[in-house]
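Ticket #4471: structure output looks truncated?

Reporter: J.K.
Steps to reproduce: submitted the chain below (271 residues) through the standard prediction queue, then opened the result file.
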Amino acid sequence: MLAKRIIPCLDVKNGRVVKGRSFVNLRDAGDPVEQGRLYSEAGADELVFLDITATLEARQTIRALAAAVGRAVFIPYTIGGGIRELDDIKALLQAGAEKISINSAAVRKPGLITEGANAFGNQAVVVAIDAKRVGGGGTGFQPVPSESTGYKPVLPKWEVYIDAGTRATGLDAVQWARRVEELGCGEILLTSIDADGHTAGYDIELTRAIAGAVGIPVIASGGAGGPEDIWRVLTEGQADAALAASIFHYGQYTIAQVKEYLRDRGVSVRL
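Returned output as attached by the reporter:
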């Protein structure tokens, strides 16, 4: 059995780590390089750095941050934000990143996924999917009128958002996940906008739907409030890795505590 991964996520804005709720109301959480170094020493399996406004503000990719992190940490890390061209991918990988993450660019220019995979390998290309529930409510089913029965169950649906969660695309998240796998991405970073930062648990239905639709690893993101939430998304949600931010940034739990909790409940983790 492959070990499940615990991955701190460092959202970066103006050179600082920030954290909000549902992509808004951001507050400062420290220096990204120093935070990355501390997480590396604390037993994180990987790190993810995302410049959350690079695309929205049309800035250059965070190449300087990629290089600084590469000098400070000794575990794999993914970096993303404002990537538009193959040269952007090349620059970040050369700076030391093991993987790059693309979100808005993947929607606007799907061929970039294939270009990156062909040039640097599928394992180097992560597609981030930010999804918001647009039907089915919180239970997964919602009564809607039907000519034959009066009501019928409707499966939940999640829509893909880009530009730091500000722009709806009309894309169904499950169908988009299948498509990016076909295009050559090696991993999906799946964030529930509804759950993000609320520390009330991951969207298990969303995660399970995506994980069941693709054959590549899925990293679950958005909603971790404690070790039990992470255990649920790795087991019930069928995720290959769990991303968390608030619980680590503000000292509520350590990576060691989370991994010990998972190990004690039969989940394979690297200690």
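Triage note (M.O.): checked the attachment and the full token line is present. The radius of gyration is 18 Å.
Status: closed, working as intended.
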